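Figure 2 data, in text form.
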Amino acid sequence: MPSTFLGLNTGLSGLNYFQTALNTTSHNVSNANTKGYSRQQVNASASQALSIAASYGMMGTGVTANSVDRLRNEYYDTKYWNTTSKYSEYAAEEENLKQLETYMNEMTGNAGYSEWLNRFSDALQDLSDNPSDYTARIGFTNTVDSFTDMVNELANNFQNSQKSINDEIELGVSEINSLAKQIYELTQQIITIELRGGSANDLRDQRGVCIDTLAEYVDVDVEERSIMFGTGLDAVASDAKAMSIRINGNILVDEMGYHELMVVPREERVNQSDVDGLVDIAWKNADSTPGEKFQITRTTGKLNGLFNIRDGNNGEIFKGTITAKTDSPATVSIELPRSINVYKLNVPTQGVINLNGREYIYDGWTAEYDEDDNLNNFTFQNMTMIDKSGAEVTAIILDSVVGTTAQMGEYNATKGIPYYQARLNEMVRTFSEYMNKHTTSGVDSEGNDGLDMFTAVDPYGKDYILKDTMLGSGTLNSTDSSYYKLTALNWELNSDWQNDPGKVVVSYKEDIEQGDIERRPIVDAITYGLTDMKMFQQGSISQYMQSVTTNLAVDISKMSAFTNNQDDIKYIINNQRLSISGVDSNEEASELVKFENLYNLASKVISVLNEVYNKLINDTGR
């Protein structure tokens, strides 16, 4: 026979369950707009039945609230993190390419290269009309000087963007370290609570938000596994789970601790026009020294996108075969598979080169050149290396490196800032050589040999003399005066031309000797050069610059398409995720009404039983 008070206990179990359900629903409603919150529901089951007699069988004893579960689907989480990483990478590239496009658009606008080339042409026309007039010469030199200033400004803006991206990389590393610490601390709290049989739903949501943010920077591999009690065959899984997060195959966070990344400043440049102070990323050792290099190109995410624009070289890296080496001083000779023209050379005067997988530092180089100014057979001089203590010492280059591969920088297929800087450098070198060839073949107003029209200032404050450099074939030293020394950053009109308009070359020597100061064959040659279709492979200088801006526009269009595509995928996956974990206000309102009614019914059960027991206890036997 069942207990007299069984019905009261059964009603009480319903009252407790529906109270818990109401509280959980209230919690859902309160967090309907909380970022990363997962909808919770009470997991209930019928209480253990009571055996009353063979003839009656089992009688129910009510309901038991077993747990409050968060509704979450790990499959959608994984898909969301992967898509977020790809989207963030493309978005970072698109955003920074658009910044470069802004600078390039300024070059094509009213104050851009097209306008200044037109002014260049107009100034040449004025000079052609009055070749001996100082006013026309002054106007010409001012116009040309402004044209070089415009190119300098563009190159400086590219460097400023490179510096800004570099700063953003440093902030990204700091954010990753902060997230790793938060995830570890939250995991410890979650394990502690769940080992005691509790529920850590809200802490798990907080950790999920951290992982969502982490996935924006790098691709994450998340794994959860049950913590086991006991060992071997006797081990039993507990309700608590440990989490590990890997990035690039290495553990960032697990139940034992978290690892940090650190930025490592580059002591030397990788590309000739790189801004100083760029950084790489390495894992931080326990003693806060740099450890293994973090291979950013093997992951996806915002960090990789930033690196692509900051270091993107379109795969055009210095790479060849080591043909010889020497000791005391340490040098290494490298043969390229194809010679490179001096106008396209992007090798720093001092830098770092990788020999058979190890980095070495050099402080100069020489190269052999042919009659077409093509360079090969490079020899890098005074090689040093960083020893285990972090000190720079004379390089020890093993004989076994001969025949292996040497390269400078890393292959990066993206057309980033180094690529566009190299294109600008190629433009100023090619244009300068074309113009200088004419001006140095003539004489100034005093009959003196003509000077280079375009040049740059050397370390001693004087103009590089580019005339008669790299004639025929020979050997070029990185410190020699050559068109390699000209970049879009330092390109300028010859200072003598700026200071003395009489130095402007318009005629040949025989014209001056014959007293024909009005002849201007060199001016005519320079004028023709502005539209010479054979100056560049792409055509004239204007068409060359247009090809650069077109390349940039095409890359932006491609990145925009990739970004929009990943954004659509991310939106769909997030909606799928929210369909399970999201809070729907209409659904919760319905749940509130349902549980309110059920709570009232459970209360009614207890009220009715109260009357029954009152009758039984107080009125029976009267």
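Caption note: The first strand starts at residue 40 and ends at 46.
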